[in-house]
Amino acid sequence: MNPRHQLDLHLRARYPLLWLPTAEEERAEEDLRAVAAALQPAWTVWAWDCADGFGGEEAHRRLPLPALEFIAAQPVDEPALFILRDFHPFLRDPQVTRALRNLAHELRGRRQTIILLGAVLDVPPTLTDEVTVLDYPLPSAEVVGAHFDQLLGAFVEHLEPGTREALLQACMGMSLVRIGQVLRLALAADGTLDERAIDRVLAEKEQAIRRTEVLEFLDPSEGLESIGGLDGLKAWLERRALAFTERARRYGLPAPRGLLLAGIQGTGKSLSAKATANLLRVPLLRLDVGRLMGSLVGESEGRAREMIRVAEAMAPAVLWIDEIDKAFRGVSSGYTGDSGTSARVFGTILTWLQEKTSSVFVVATANNIEQLPPELLRKGRFDEIFFIDLPTTAEREAILEVHLTRRRPHRLREFDLPALAAASEGYSGAELEQAVIDAMYAGYEAQREFTTADIARALAETVPLSVSRQQEIDALRAWVAAGNARRATV
Ligand SMILES: Nc1ncnc2c1ncn2[C@@H]1O[C@H](COP(=O)(O)OP(=O)(O)OP(=O)(O)O)[C@@H](O)[C@H]1O
Ligand SMILES: [Mg+2]
C-alpha cells in the first residue's frame, strides 16, 4: 500500500501511537509532513530528537520525559503530529514507557498522534497494546525515478537510451540514501553512468541482502532437469511458471503465492526450491528462519519485517524458507513464551503469506509436518502443499540417470539402471547420489572406471535412513492419505 495513504488512514482513525520502523528518516518525514498538511484542518508537525529537542530554545526538552510532558501540555483540540526520532533506547526506562503509555491513553480519540521513527523495531512488552507498527515500504519505482532525475540533474540527458531504465530497475529495493551513495560513487569512479554503474548497484544490493543477516542471495544453476522423478511437482511448477509472468498479471491472474514441500530427508526438497527459481528465471533468496527466530528477542520482529521488505523489493523473486518446521515448532498465535516474540514473528510471516500481492514466490520445506503450527497449513497460505515420498522404482532410475549423466555423460549407456533401481528400494535421492560417489571412489582407488557393480556394492553397504524412520514415514503417508497434501509423484 502507498505509505502516504496508509499514514493518512491511521491519523484520521486517531491512532495515538504509531511505530514506523525505517532507516529512511528523511523520506518518511517528508511523507508524514505531506500527509499532515493535507488533512483538514492541517495538523501541526513537531519533530523531536535527543540532540535538538523539539528544535526550540528549551534545552531540558532534549530529555525524553520532559519531551513527553511537552506533548501532554499541548492544547487538546489542536491537531498535531509528534515525531520522536530514535526514541527506542529510552524505552528501556520504565518511567518513560509508563509516561508514553499514559500519554497514549490521553491522546486516544484526539487528533494528536505520536510517531516513533527509527531504524530499530523493538516494542517493549508493556507497550504492545498501545503501539501500532506500520510498515514503511522501500521507495516505489515512481519515487526512485523522481529522485534519480533530481540526483543526476543534467547527467540524465547524457545517458545511453535504455541505461536509465536498466539502472532504475537495478536500484529497486534500495533506500534513497543508498541509491544516492552508489550513483555518486559510480560517477566519481567511472566519470559517467553506464553498464558499470549497474554492476555497482547490483553489488550494493547484494550487500543489503547480506545486511539483513537472515537472507542469502543465491543464483541456482540446477533446473528441473536435475530433478529425477517428481513429475507431478514438475508439471505443477511449469504451469505456475506461466502464471508468474507480466502477461499473466495483465490477464488478471493473481501472482502465485508459493508452495510447501514436505517429506523425509534427502528426497529433493531443497533441490526443488532451487530448481523453482531457475525455472522462473528470478533470484533466489534463502531465509534462515532458525537465525531469524534466534536473534535477540525483540530484534527478531524488526528483522522479519525488514526481511519481507527486502524480499518484496527484490520481486520478482523466489523466497526459500528452508526447514520451516524447525523454526516454528510448536509456535502458534496463542503461544506466549519469550514474551510472545516468536508468536509475533510467526504472525507477521503468516499475515504476509496470506496478504502479499507481490511476485515473491515462497517455497517452504519441512521434514516434520506434525511440528508445524496448523495455521500455516490452512488454505490461502500456500497454493499447494506437496508431499515428497521416497522415490518409486522408476524415479530411482531417473535419479541415477541424472547423477550419472552429470558425471559420466558418455558412459551412461554402460550402466544397468533398471537393475540398480530394483536393488535400491527405500533409498532416497541423496542416498542414491552418495552411492554413485562411493562407487567413483572405489573405481578411482583401483585406477579404473567405476561400474554398475561398484554402485550396487555401495548400495548394499549402506542402510537407508528410511529403515530407521519407518514410523515417521508412515505418519506422513497417513497424513497425506487423509487429503492434506498432494503427492509430488504421479
Ligand atoms: N529427486 C532427485 N533427483 C535428483 N537428485 C536428487 C533427488 N533427490 C535428492 N537428490 C540429491 O540429493 C541431494 C540432497 O537433496 P536435498 O537437499 O534436496 O534433500 P532435502 O529433501 O532438502 O533433504 P533435507 O530434508 O535433509 O533438507 C540433492 O542435492 C541431489 O543431488
Ligand atoms: Mg533440505
What is the CATH homology-level superfamily of the largest domain? P-loop containing nucleotide triphosphate hydrolases
In terms of DSSP E residues, the strand content is 5-15%
Please name the CATH topology of the largest domain. Rossmann fold
Q: Helical percent range?
A: 40-55%
CATH architecture group name of the largest domain: 3-Layer(aba) Sandwich
The low-confidence runs, each spanning 5 or more residues with pLDDT under 50, are none
Q: How many domains in all?
A: 4
Distance between the termini: 41 Å
Bound small-molecule species: adenosine-5'-triphosphate, magnesium ion
Task: State the main characteristics.
Rossmann fold; 7-stranded mixed beta sheet; elongated; alpha/beta; binds adenosine-5'-triphosphate; binds magnesium ion; 490 residues; single chain
Could you characterize the architecture of this molecule?
The structure is a single chain. By secondary structure, this protein is α/β, with parallel strands linked by helices. It has four domains: 3-133, 3-Layer(aba) Sandwich (Rossmann fold), CATH 3.40.50.300; 141-211, no CATH class; 218-388, Rossmann fold (3-Layer(aba) Sandwich), CATH 3.40.50.300; 393-467, Helicase, Ruva Protein, domain 3. It is 49% helix and 12% strand. It has helices at 3-12, 25-38, 64-72, 94-107, 141-152, 163-171, 176-190, 195-211, 231-243, 246-251, 269-280, 289-294, 299-313, 324-327, 341-355, 374-377, 393-407, 417-422, 429-445, 452-461, 465-468, 470-484, and strands at residues 17-21, 44-48, 80-85, 112-118, 132-133, 215-218, 258-263, 284-287, 317-321, 360-366, 384-388, 486-487. Strands 6-8-9-10-7-11-12 form a seven-stranded mixed β-sheet, with helices on both faces. A five-stranded parallel β-sheet has the order 2-3-4-1-5, covered by helices on one side. Helix 3 links the parallel strand 2 (44-48) and strand 3. The longest helix is centred in the middle third of the chain and has 17 residues, at 195-211. The protein is elongated. The model has no long low-confidence stretch (mean pLDDT 89). Bound molecules: adenosine-5'-triphosphate and magnesium ion (MG). Residues 227-230, 263, 265-271, 365, 367, 399, 402, 429-430, 433 line the site of adenosine-5'-triphosphate.
